[in-house]
Amino acid sequence: MSFPPPHRARSRVDVSGEESRAKAVAAATELFALAGYKGTSVAAVAARTGLSQSGLLHHFPSKAALLAAVLEERDRQDGAFLTGSTSPPLGWAAFDALTALVARNSTRPRMVGLFVRLAAEAIEPSHPAHAWVQQHYAGIRTWLGEAVRTGVDRGEFRQDAPVESIVRTTVAVIDGLQQQWLLQPGELSMASEFEAHVSALRARWSSVEVR
Amino acid sequence: MSFPPPHRARSRVDVSGEESRAKAVAAATELFALAGYKGTSVAAVAARTGLSQSGLLHHFPSKAALLAAVLEERDRQDGAFLTGSTSPPLGWAAFDALTALVARNSTRPRMVGLFVRLAAEAIEPSHPAHAWVQQHYAGIRTWLGEAVRTGVDRGEFRQDAPVESIVRTTVAVIDGLQQQWLLQPGELSMASEFEAHVSALRARWSSVEVR
DNA sequence: GTCTATATTTCGATAGAC
DNA sequence: GTCTATCGAAATATAGAC
């Protein structure tokens, strides 16, 4: 009465491996968000994952590879939020989409912390997340820039609206609010403050008189 | 024909000590600005100072003490720029003062880098610069908040101007522009972008119709 | 005041057993 | 796939000579 060694045996091992890997990425995300990349040790990630240091490094050849996996997962979760919609928001509607993004970030302090820490660390070109951070900013600038330009063409914005400045300051507001929000959790609403910024932009650059 | 051992001998030693200390603070400022506090080793600061590691630690009992000296010097250089004027800028004039501050920062990438790195690192309460960063933000919020409230009282701003939001978003713009400026040096003018923000604020909240 | 030498951790990564 | 053991490098800090 022997049970046949099921395919599940092989399968279960694989699943466990996948689970360990996913757990490790989640643990690394949390710790990188709290202490940054340099401030987090592989051993700490391993401990939180429930593996030994070597056990963790079996899934990722190096600490930098672990970071790459974290960023990949971050992109996977966020990738389609702005650029992924089939009908891309255009004109002023782009700012409504951004408000929704900010509201969503307000429920994800870990992801916000991860970005703020890495963005500051990765200013240095030699940082393993440098290219990723630059691509992130380039992507947002392109998306929002095109949206505003379309708004100008459609007559939603004044014809003399300075597209690049609107884009730069809007991105700056989002980043700066995240810093303040992380430093004083609960003492400000990122979404409300961002809407105040959009309100000022509309007053200045909308083609219709709003105030 | 012996030269009397002059008081200068004692004095010269002291001066040299003071100079080494000052050099070390300058070196630490540069390196902290480039790689942050955690990413900079005491040995690297010592090498740039022209001292051995132990020679440096003779002046500062610990790495944290070195950071404290860096922050103290930073405050000494910047302390009087905003709050130090005898007649504090009030109302919209406060934003002109901020524009001047941003323009000044545009010539001091090291100081900007230092702040951006430390602000992100020191979100964590256990970071040795945590209290300093919180005080920095509290100070700016108080100063700008009072200026805007005075502007409201004087009738320069609309009576329904949301003071706290104006303060928060203005601080956010400054911080966010610094991040972008450090990441892409030369590709944006912090002063121009900040003025665009102030322009939008005036359009929205000035008591006189400006646009 | 500055140095050499060293103590003590901690880190990232590798080797090899199971 | 995971572990123990370990290596080599780098970090902070201290001791003691000059």
Number of helices of chain A: 9
Helix content of chain A: over 70%
Radius of gyration of chain A: 21 Å
Distance between the termini of chain A: 82 Å
Domain count of chain A? 2
What form of chain A results from the Cα inertia axes? elongated
Largest interface: A-B, 46 and 47 residues
Q: Structural class, from secondary structure content of chain A?
A: mainly alpha
Give the total of beta strands of chain A: 0
Global mean pLDDT of chain A: 92
Fold and architecture overview:
2 copies of one chain form a homodimer. Chain A is mostly helical and 211 residues long. The first copy, chain A, has 2 domains: 10-67, Homeodomain-like (Arc Repressor Mutant, subunit A, Orthogonal Bundle), CATH 1.10.10.60; 87-211, Orthogonal Bundle (Tetracycline Repressor, domain 2). Chain A is 71% helix and 0% strand. Chain A contains 9 helices and no strands. Chain A has helices spanning 7-35, 42-49, 53-57, 63-82, 93-105, 109-121, 130-154, 163-183, 190-205. The longest helix of chain A has 29 residues, at 7-35. Chain A starts with 6 loop residues before the first helix and ends in a 6-residue tail after the last helix. In chain A, 36% of the residues are buried. Residues 1-13 of chain A have low confidence and may be disordered. Chains A and B meet through helix 6, helix 7, helix 8 and helix 9 of A and helix 6, helix 7, helix 8 and helix 9 of B. Chain A binds a DNA duplex (18 and 18 nucleotides) through residues 13, 16-17, 20, 41-43, 51-59, 61-63.
